[in-house]
Write a structure and sequence with these properties.
Helix content: 40-55%
Number of strands: 4
CATH class of the domain at 135-247: Mainly Alpha
Strand content: 5-15%
Distance between the termini: 48 Å
Largest sheet: 4 strands, mixed
CATH topology of the domain at 135-247: Glutathione S-transferase Yfyf (Class Pi), Chain A, domain 2
Oligomer: single chain
Shape: globular
Number of helices: 9
Strand order of the largest sheet: 2-1-3-4
CATH architecture of the domain at 135-247: Up-down Bundle
Order of helices and strands: EHEHEEHHHHHHH
């Protein structure tokens, strides 16, 4: 077995391989000029139906479900495999070049938002929905929301990358991130054994954020990994996954049609 010895200074002079090798670079900023379309609705969503994108789809569709007229939105597709996230218009909203991004044009000047957790929290507070008003319950909701934001990179960028996207299968990173992913699934399973939703009896933005990643993982929709991870063994997680997945707004969110930006 060849042992890799890191150089004193890293340079980007070797093929990194993997699904996104053609767009990955160690630098930020716009790579091409691209003006984003703007619709007539108050909210403008620029995203993709990945787990991070689905979180915001769910929130917007849940607001639509309860008849919140001021939460109407236009949704546009940012194809990350084609480098749309590096267009000047998108980078102007999100200098980190990641989906999702949202612009609230109902205020002057418009508010630009990125990072899915920040967008969920902004929308919840703006419309007074899907976030508890009780101090203790609100704290619990935010705790689980930020648990998801901190944990999902191990699932997506760690397990998902090495299990599904890396150019070669490597035992150590797959074992390392599988161990962590299963630990996280067990955290959720144990918690949901005692709670209907992530925050007890209340359906909140914490459920939306966590379901988009771990609910879809439990459904076998991520990385073709259901058998490998034995997702069916997490019975309480499966109960919650089904409960959330059957909500009409969630069903619409997963299959949301995004308009082309071209």
């Amino acid at each position: 077995m060849t042992t890799y010895q890191p150089p004193k200074i890293w340079t980007n002079d070797a093929e990194n391989g993997g699904k996104f090798a053609n767009i990955n670079r160690p630098t930020a900023g716009a790579r091409h000029e691209k003006t984003l379309p703007v619709g007539n609705n108050p909210l403008q969503l620029y995203s993709l139906n990945t787990p991070n994108g689905v979180k915001i789809n769910i929130m917007l569709e849940e607001l639509a479900e309860i008849g919140e007229q001021n939460a109407k939105y236009d949704a546009y597709k940012i194809d990350i495999s084609q480098g749309d996230q590096f267009g000047s218009g998108f980078v102007n909203i999100n200098p980190n070049s990641k989906i999702p991004a949202l612009v609230d044009n109902s205020v002057n000047p418009p508010i630009k938002l990125f990072e899915s957790g920040a967008i969920l929290l902004y929308l919840a507070e703006k419309f007074g929905q899907f976030i508890p008003t009780d101090t203790a319950k609100r704290a619990e909701c935010l705790t689980w929301l930020f648990w998801q934001m901190a944990s999902a990179p191990y699932l997506g960028g760690g397990f998902g990358h090495f299990y599904a996207y890396a150019p070669t299968k490597q035992e150590y990173p797959i074992n390392r991130f599988t161990m962590e992913t299963k630990r996280q699934l067990d955290v959720l399973d144990q918690h949901l054994a005692k709670n209907i939703f992530m925050c007890g009896d209340d359906y909140t933005i914490a459920d939306m954020a966590i379901w988009a990643w771990y609910g879809q993982l439990a459904q076998g929709k991520l990385y073709n990994s259901a058998e490998f991870l034995q997702v069916e063994s997490y019975q309480h997680l499966q109960r919650w996954t089904k409960l959330i997945g059957e909500r009409p707004a969630v069903e619409r969110a997963v299959n949301l049609t995004l308009q082309a930006i071209a």
